[in-house]
Structure formats: structure tokens, C-alpha cells
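2024-03-11 09:14:02 DEBUG pipeline.ingest accepted 1 chain
2024-03-11 09:14:02 DEBUG pipeline.ingest length=181
2024-03-11 09:14:03 DEBUG pipeline.predict start
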Amino acid sequence: MVNEDADVVARVLAGDGEAFGILIRRYEPGLLRFATRMLGNPDAAADAVAESFVRAYRHLAQCRDPSRLRSWLYRITGNRCRSHLARRHTNDIPLSEAPAPALAEASDAWEILERSEQVALVERALAALPAEKREAFVLKHVEGMSYEEMAAVTGARIPTLKMRVHRAREALLEALEEVVR
């Protein structure tokens, strides 16, 4: 997809505005997943992603390396999420609005209930993390990025990111253990 991204960017920069839709279709699902976990609110996440795509379209010529477009888009979206978080208090994030991942088909209603409770616990623990740790954890374990990609997205150094992911994991485990006790 790296070369494909560069080709699509070249088409957009050459005046083919419709080609930008290819990039939206390609990256919107992942960016929405990332923003939703960062913000804890699907509506705010959709706003942040929409703002990110507008910003990306306006500044596409400034993307120095179109073959690394994915990292560039995640960086823009991460910045939009941080702006949204700065404008509101953590208390304003209703955990009830945090989306639960799709559940596998379960034959028993109790099993579905138990899974949804487990998902809710993980979502609450994730929402309680500081933004930097949550961002690092989501980029690594939800979006599956390498530390090099994460560094390009966040602007942080790789050792810093490794520490944030490690501390996020520890905090999540600790939070989940507290609930089990």
C-alpha cells in the first residue's frame, strides 16, 4: 500500500480531488477506532477524524514522504484528539458511550453478558489512562503499529514509547486486578 499511497497522493496533488476518497476509504476505519479509544466518545471521534481529513487534504502538499501517509494521518488525528481532550475535562467523557468491540456469536445470553462486562471493564481501564499512555497502547495493541510508525505518529522517541506502552499495560492489569478482587 506504500507505493499505492504515493500514487494516490500524486493524483490528488495533480488535481484529481476524487482520488482523496480512496485515502478516506482506506484509512477512516482505523482512524475512527484510534480516535474513539483516545476520546472515549464515538461522536467526538468522528468529528476529530473528519477534521483530520480536512486538514490532511488542505496540507497534502506538505506531506514530505507520501509513502508514509498512514503515519502522517495518524499524527494529524492524534493531534486533533489531544486538542479535543484539552478542551474538555476527563469527567465529561461518559463511559457508557464508549463502543464495545463486536462480540463473537455466542449461544448463551449469559456468555454475551459476561463478555460485554469484560469489555466494559477494559474500556473503563483504558479510559482512565493518561492520554499519552492510552495513545501509545492503542497505537501498539489496537492499531498494530511498529514503534517506528508510532514515533512518526506521536513525535516521541522509541524508548519513550516503549516505556509508555509498558506502563499502560501495567496500569491496565492493575486496574483489572482491582476489579477482580
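2024-03-11 09:14:41 DEBUG pipeline.report Helices lie at 2-13, 20-39, 42-58, 69-86, 109-128, 131-142, 147-154, 158-180.
2024-03-11 09:14:41 DEBUG pipeline.predict end
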